[in-house]
Amino acid sequence: MIRVLLADDEAMIRAGVRAILSADPGIEVVAEAGDGREAVALTQSHRPDVVLLDIRMPRLDGLAAATELRRTAPETGVIILTTFGEDEYIARALSGGASGFLLKSGDPHELLAGVHAVAGGAAYLSPKVAHRVITELSGGRMEHGAEARRRTAALTPREREVLALLGSGLSNAEIAGRLHVVEGTVKAYVSAILTRLEVRNRVQAAIVAYEAGLVDDAARP
């Protein structure tokens, strides 16, 4: 069962999101918060697998809350769920430690897919957001490619293989199945990769993998 904490300052939005999540028998909403500070506090007491954060909330906005949760509850996945898809918000969310970014205008199935992906240790972006991120990466890929290749050269061959699969969007369980190892081994590799690359989360590691050219063929059986 995936335990979710939902944070949004609009009660009607929370009710709608809760209804969507409740339709999935594998998801349980364990708490709701009306602002970012409350979300951080409730995360400490409920220890959910995933926290859904709106961006614009009183006392502490979703972006600041995501950063705080990364520091105080690193084992909890964070998804930004918002009406706003501006590039500045996307960049701040991902650099702040969020593992997902979803638009409220998206298909409800995206929400469920995102929760399952982040709970499984993967990253998830709304298709519209993913397109914008990839477009941005494509524009600067040649510029950043040399630096990314230098950074990934310090990894072991197995770590590079795990990074490539991570960059393709696979969860820890999926990577374990592909490499025929236990999931705990993959978690150890991912932790080592984040440390070696000096990045905060899987999304940032995936960007390095993409810029280094590791992703293109990684997802092929």
Automatic annotation (TrEMBL):
CDD domains, per database record: LuxR_C_like, REC_NarL-like
Keywords: DNA-binding, Phosphoprotein, Transcription, Transcription regulation
Residues covered by the Response regulatory domain: 3-119
HTH luxR-type domain boundaries: 148-213
Residues with 4-aspartylphosphate modification: D54
Domain of life per record: Bacteria
PROSITE patterns referenced in this protein's UniProt entry, alphabetically: HTH_LUXR_1 (PS00622), HTH_LUXR_2 (PS50043), RESPONSE_REGULATORY (PS50110)
InterPro entries: CheY-like_superfamily, NreC/VraR/RcsB-like_REC, Sig_transdc_resp-reg_C-effctor, Sig_transdc_resp-reg_receiver, Tscrpt_reg_LuxR_C, WalR-like
SMART domains linked to this entry: HTH_LUXR, REC
Keyword Thylakoid recorded: no
PANTHER family: TRANSCRIPTIONAL REGULATORY PROTEIN NARL-RELATED, TWO-COMPONENT RESPONSE REGULATOR
Protein's name according to its UniProt entry: Response regulator
